[in-house]
């Protein structure tokens, strides 16, 4: 039992002054309405179990002082609770009460000393934490009595402390008034550091974010259901006002509600049936970044997810894919049944939980060979979060971080430890050779946990393995304002803490593209066709012969041109030489006038020019004969039909001498003078054909072979005027 013998002695002194100060404190609190500024109902206290749980939490996170500054001694043993509470609302209330007592620890200890509760009463040390948390709630209720429920089970220690505080009600109120006057503060709230006050102000106005479970309901159905409940859709959500909601600009499946509507929203079926889920926006940004990097069959590895709602959101976004989600770090196997039951209720079917911690997983684990993207949500200081209790409950469950929140910052030593852990996890994630991207996301505002960790990991990444190195990629999220564009100029996505959102840092690391694995348009279409995405569309395929032709066309253009020019010159010289020799021979045999000989020369030169025309194309067979090891890209035309066996045969030139055609001279009698003169026509014959004698015959070509219609060798078939 608590001993309050000093209460009577102290009550005889300065009763008038104490009463005045107490009345001032109570009247000022009632007039200011500091606890009801947002329209919340008056507080009536908590159940006994909440006080006990809050006292144990405070015992573990309280600020320890040096021995010379210790005012109140705290015990080391926790209070015994009735049972392990699993109710979410009880746990949340306990953390909120413990965190509030932690923020005002110095003030509450001073009030207890100034009111002579310490050391005038004999209080066990293990109850000191309970007195602190209950005193904060007592002054928060303006020193009004607690309303108890009839079916509530009471705890003896809570009842004793409550009776003590009620007996010292007047003195506690007077001590609080003196403290406020001393610090010239309108309320106890204004005594807090400015950083803590700004954090509390943001928390009171921060909108609620909830993502739509599209496995169970469509966005249009959600809008219709909310409209039936009296909600209407707007472009932006005000802090106070009617029942409204808006769609987030970064995440198409996230809705925004005013903060004062939370209790009303929790009572509608959309939230009870897991069709709408409350969660901080930073986690939705992380999973949407992963979604933008995925192919249809890529697996995902999620590390340090904190809230299981993050895993569920990732599963919902990949519901139409064949992706599988691996999750690291289930803290205890006892949570597995409840967790899988939660996933079943939410419609998540592609989640597998790995019992190992992330650092202990081998980068070549056979289970993770199809993992292409890794989501890393490392444990961080979380100083970008406005509501630390929500952050602790949903993400870390590390009550020690509440101490940093209460002081408005993290110590350098602790920040260094966190940054080293983040660096180790990021470098380990970069060792998974099959992975192609890593998304790194924190709720911190410290560069030591954000940019410094990423840049260090990129700088010291292992280049010895046979994979492409990682590089920093631009954000895959839409940038919706000039401020966001400015904050993302260095390829990092940042959101500063504000009255509408918590702080967030997000970085996307992707492997550099391998030049040897450049994917062509045909390859993309082939993949799509293999997956059945191009039903009814046939893709044209290039034959091997076309590919060889392209290669030969690239390889031999200069050689063919050079050889053809040389061959043409040799053929022209040979024909001119033979033409001149035959012309001289014809002059000794015939007796004609000078004019006739001139006509003969004109005819000869004309035939020579005709013979030169078909002689310009025979370069292809000659080229094949000289370069038999390489195959030209085109077959010769205008000479022979292609053989059925698709083989090329080299041919040799054969000379055919025919008598000239004598043109008539103009004469009165109209007589026609003719002089036989030899003319040469060139034709290709098989290399096996040998000619005996001087004059060749048209039968020199290969037997059974039909000449082409446009060949010059068809000239002998014309009418012969000399006959």
TrEMBL record:
SAM-dependent MTase RsmB/NOP-type domain mapped to chain residues? 198-512
KW Calcium (keyword) present:
no
The biased composition feature labelled Polar residues covers: 590-615
Q: Which InterPro entries match?
A: MeTrfase_RsmB-F_NOP2_cat, MeTrfase_RsmB-F_NOP2_dom, NSUN5_7_fdxn-like, NSUN7, SAM-dependent_MTases_sf
Q: Which UniProt keywords apply?
A: Methyltransferase, RNA-binding, S-adenosyl-L-methionine, Transferase
What GO terms in the biological process aspect are recorded for it? methylation
| Name listed for the protein in its UniProt record | NOP2/Sun RNA methyltransferase family member 7
Please name the gene that encodes this protein.
NSUN7
